[in-house]
DNA sequence: GTAGGGTTAG
């Protein structure tokens, strides 16, 4: 509404707005008519006006001829202006209305109410909700009584702007004014309460209605759908049909959308069959709803057939198909539709561009993304937040962080999605520092912001920081969802922090967080990595749906504790249940065989990959077999296997072989391997370290020195051993021989005590594990400071009596630490659990669960 | 007159 002037005259006819098309020739004829016969026939020509310019022309004509003072003509002109729905036309309508009120001060109240209603409706339809409600208030102040048309119009404005209280006040007023039985008013109230989330209130109004029509039912169905109560919405539809009320197109669209949200294609089909049989007109909107439903339910073929068979492929239908392809990760297909649209279809709008930009982002197609950006700018679509945000996302996903930042900086209306998109962009580019800075700088954060930042930290291995951030999130009163918990579970798993893992699991239960397949798999994997296969299997058994990833996590949980037989049983059960195995599950199950020494079974599975499951083994699977044979001491077989591989063996293959040579102290074969490796380009640090270790074990210090020099020349650095231990939710990390750790004096003292007690029990350090050319005393000292020993000592001091000491080691533990842990478990009567980079070792009463086979 | 379709970030 404008309150600038009361003058109600149109602009001179020459001042044609650039946005308006030139008046058609038929209008010129009207202009040239000299005199109208009577006011009514003159206003009749208003009906055929198609655009604002034509109305303005007639307005000018009426003014010139003095007809503007005629209340009937003025009323029709105001209504016509309001129906155009542009801000300019609404301004004219309002000015006209002011003039009307002035001229009919003592006059016709029914016409005034009629005009109030028209303007309230027009403003509501044009999303000028405040103006709409203010007009209603103005109407009351001016002493006009709202009628049964006023309430639906103003309630609609309240619903669309989610003004629950105002709507409830209108409810009272409507009852007071005697509209408690009016079906239009009551339908509007059902809709209003449903829109504002007060579904019980909507149901109450609905239940108390003396009579209900199809709109009443449809309004309630929509209310349920809005609250994501899609099942209830569909039930209500069938209830309606049983009551003998025939649905119309609007009802069908609402219920089909509910089926889409449920992803229930059978239900969608039932509704769709109902539409076909009931003889309803299947208009554009119904077709679109059906296409959307089938796409959402994964019945892409059905959707595509409907689309192909539709003669009226309007803009929304194209957009529906494209956005659904994008959601399904089929960016290329979305772009195919876009090409068809450019050739045959309507002009793309901003929603179309959103799908195209998202597609180019998914494909990392920077060129297409740039073209889209240019199109957006050429067509003035850049002011829509969603478009700006998707452009940021597109540049970020294409690795153009600077361009993403530039678009972000230039955005005048940054929303939380803009910040989150940029944040996710930093994550993808591995710029954790910038991401954290941006996160701390954000004016507001929502669940997605927290989830993004936590996921970034997990992705880049900052597990403790991720857990810390999760705690901050809770302190800010934000409730986590299943996306958060997937990251948290993953962090716990990598940290091997069992107490934290248990707490995480309880958190999911306590807060009723929906445990979908992804979260189920993450929790199962978490327990597996924390060495608690029982809890892992408990989660696995409660999972309703299990895909190959879930089965892999379960098999992995078994593999890491050396339970090869159960891992194999799970694998066979998976195949029995028609879950198609992939490459990952094969490497997991082969690893399980390797840790349990199941050579025959492992070879059988490896051979079945190609024959039975049509999967060509990857180099990783060959590595598993080398490991399987090597660990079992079948070194000659392992070397033959390597020689007969269809591809060039890589570092991992030689690593597995050399590792086996080291376990079985076979220096001869290691030498042979060394010769082959030196001829190839395999210079991986792991291999060189293993080689130097093998030579060192055999006391060949000259060879050790050669390898070390070679490593130095190549800039290779041995990864430092480190062990961590969780205590009261905090993860403490120890590195070999590091004096600067907190509580290190006490830990060193404890370690000394342990060594004395162990010596008394007959423990002799295995000096072969010290791979440096130093004297025996020094070797003994170095060996005593291995990180897992420090962690065990710290664990014994800090944790309660009888509690297991759980340590996570980043490398494979050495045989001396293994013997040490066995003795500690006996002498101190404590369970010691160590996860090294291979598997779990559970030490109890002097022996280990791996039976010294690892 | 009241009720309906496509919309970005984890």
Overview of this protein structure:
The chain is mainly alpha-helical. Among the domains are: 445-541; 737-848, no CATH class. Helix content is 66%, strand content 3%. It is built from 45 helices and 6 strands. The chain has a 6-stranded mixed sheet with strand order 2-1-3-4-5-6, sandwiched between helices. Strand 5 (840-844) and strand 6 form a beta hairpin. The longest helix has 17 residues, at 87-103. The radius of gyration is 37 Å and the shape is elongated. It starts with 24 loop residues before the first helix and ends in a 6-residue tail after the last strand. It binds one DNA strand of 10 nucleotides through helix 8, helix 10, helix 12, helix 14 and helix 16.
Draw up the topology in text:
Blueprint: H1 25-32, H2 39-44, H3 52-64, H4 71-84, H5 87-103, H6 109-125, H7 129-141, H8 150-160, H9 164-176, H10 183-195, H11 199-207, H12 214-226, H13 230-242, H14 249-262, H15 265-278, H16 284-296, H17 300-309, H18 315-327, H19 331-344, H20 350-363, H21 366-378, H22 385-397, H23 401-410, H24 416-428, H25 432-441, H26 447-459, H27 463-475, H28 482-495, H29 498-510, H30 517-529, H31 533-542, H32 548-560, H33 564-576, H34 583-596, H35 599-611, H36 619-631, H37 635-643, H38 651-663, H39 667-679, H40 685-697, H41 701-713, E1 722-727, E2 730-735, H42 744-760, H43 776-784, H44 787-798, E3 805-809, H45 815-827, E4 832-835, E5 840-844, E6 847-848
Parallel strand pairs: 3-4
Antiparallel strand pairs: 1-2, 1-3, 4-5, 5-6
Helix pairs in contact: 3-4, 4-5, 4-6, 5-6, 6-7, 6-8, 7-8, 8-9, 8-10, 9-10, 10-11, 10-12, 11-12, 12-13, 12-14, 13-14, 14-15, 14-16, 16-17, 16-18, 18-19, 18-20, 19-20, 20-21, 20-22, 21-22, 22-23, 22-24, 23-24, 24-25, 24-26, 25-26, 26-27, 26-28, 27-28, 28-29, 28-30, 30-31, 30-32, 31-32, ...
The protein binds one DNA strand of 10 nucleotides through helix 8, helix 10, helix 12, helix 14 and helix 16.
